[in-house]
């Protein structure tokens, strides 16, 4: 459907126009659900955010510049409304002793996450996925909003960096910085699910790694950590790519960080896992009715 045709659907008979617009929006609703449920801590708030986003999109469809951008447009509406809701909620909570989720530095991982049993010990795969979903939701809730937005757009929904930056209204450099911090925090909090070896660093192994790195003259761990996000996204090339890979081959610590980060991203991107933490009936008759009332 062309942009002009979308705009024409907002004029004339409400019932027919609403149905046409809904058909354009429906394919993108699963992504919208996952995004809203990951941003908001409370299920009811997430459901309200989805409904409000759809209503705003349907009533202002004439503002859409390109039909190809409809998915990003929906997510942008959701981002703005989520920020407004959280600001309002923060004002109500101020002075009550509750800590603002968007304030402060990096918080310590939720101790409950470390009590989650190893998935390999759970015979029922459905139960494992449910526990994983709960852990992901708790971990996302611990992130500051600015990190949670970036992480969900890039690593849960798989939206490209440039597009995600445009949706959030930030530069690609800022997005890259926030994404690295978000990934590091998520990796730490979801370690019980993704670790492939003991987390303790044995002094002897560390000394061996240091000797290997000096002999092979590889780049520093700090350099590799700074480039790890781009390495995971396949954005390193040439000499820099070779340097990072040479370091990872001789440094067990950086290899473990890379391995657990990659597995964390695979876990949160699994729709069979994350979708379990947000169940909502698609009450389209209600959405259609509200749309018609708004247009009346």
Distance between the termini: 24 Å
Number of strands: 0
Return the CATH class of the largest domain: Mainly Alpha
3D shape: globular
CATH architecture of the largest domain: Up-down Bundle
Count the DSSP helices: 16
Number of domains: 2
Secondary-structure element series: HHHHHHHHHHHHHHHH
pLDDT average, as an integer? 70
CATH superfamily of the largest domain: PhyR, sigma-like (SL) domain
Q: What would you say about this model in short?
A:
The chain has 296 residues and is mainly α. It is 69% helix and 0% strand. The longest helix has 24 residues, at 70-93.
Overview of the molecule:
This protein has 296 residues and is an all-alpha fold. The protein has 16 helices and no strands. It folds into 2 domains: 3-96 and 109-195 and 269-295, PhyR, sigma-like (SL) domain (Butyryl-CoA Dehydrogenase, subunit A, domain 3, Up-down Bundle), CATH 1.20.140.160; 203-262, no CATH class. It has helices at residues 3-8, 14-25, 29-39, 43-59, 70-93, 125-142, 145-156, 161-168, 172-189, 191-194, 203-216, 221-232, 238-250, 252-269, 271-274, 284-295. Helix 2 (14-25) crosses helix 16 (284-295).
Question: How would you describe this structure in keywords?
Answer:
296 residues; globular; Butyryl-CoA Dehydrogenase, subunit A, domain 3; mainly alpha; single chain; disordered N terminus
Write the SSE topology.
Layout lengths: L2 H6 L5 H12 L3 H11 L3 H17 L10 H24 L31 H18 L2 H12 L4 H8 L3 H18 L1 H4 L8 H14 L4 H12 L5 H13 L1 H18 L1 H4 L9 H12 L1
Helix pairs in contact: 2-16, 3-4, 3-5, 3-7, 4-5, 4-16, 5-8, 7-8, 7-9, 8-9, 9-12, 9-14, 12-13, 13-14
């Amino acid at each position: 459907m062309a942009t002009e045709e979308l705009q024409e659907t907002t004029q004339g008979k409400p019932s027919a126009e609403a149905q046409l617009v809904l058909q354009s929006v429906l394919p993108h609703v699963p992504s919208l659900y996952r995004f809203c449920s990951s941003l908001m801590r409370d299920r009811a708030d997430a459901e309200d955010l989805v409904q409000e986003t759809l209503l705003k999109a349907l009533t202002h469809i004439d503002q859409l510049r390109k039909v190809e951008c409809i998915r990003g447009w929906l997510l942008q509406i959701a981002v703005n409304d989520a920020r407004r809701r959280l600001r309002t909620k923060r004002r109500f909570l101020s002075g009550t002793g509750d800590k603002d989720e968007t304030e402060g530095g990096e918080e310590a991982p939720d101790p409950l996450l470390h009590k989650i049993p190893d998935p390999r010990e759970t015979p029922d795969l459905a139960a494992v996925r449910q526990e994983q979903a709960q852990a992901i939701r708790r971990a996302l809730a611990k992130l500051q909003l600015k990190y949670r937005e970036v992480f969900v757009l890039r690593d849960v929904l798989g939206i490209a960096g440039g597009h995600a930056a445009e949706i959030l209204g930030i530069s690609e450099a800022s997005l890259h910085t926030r994404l690295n911090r978000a990934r590091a925090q998520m990796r730490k909090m979801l370690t019980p699910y993704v670790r492939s070896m003991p987390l303790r660093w044995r002094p002897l192994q560390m000394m061996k790694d240091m000797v290997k790195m000096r002999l092979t003259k590889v780049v520093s761990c700090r350099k590799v950590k700074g480039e790890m996000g781009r390495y995971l996204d396949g954005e390193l090339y040439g000499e820099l790519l070779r340097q990072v890979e040479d370091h990872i081959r001789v440094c067990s610590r950086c290899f473990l960080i890379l391995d657990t980060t990659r597995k964390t991203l695979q876990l949160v991107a699994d729709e069979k896992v994350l979708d379990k933490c947000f169940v909502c009936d698609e009450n389209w008759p209600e959405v259609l009715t509200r749309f018609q009332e708004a247009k009346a």
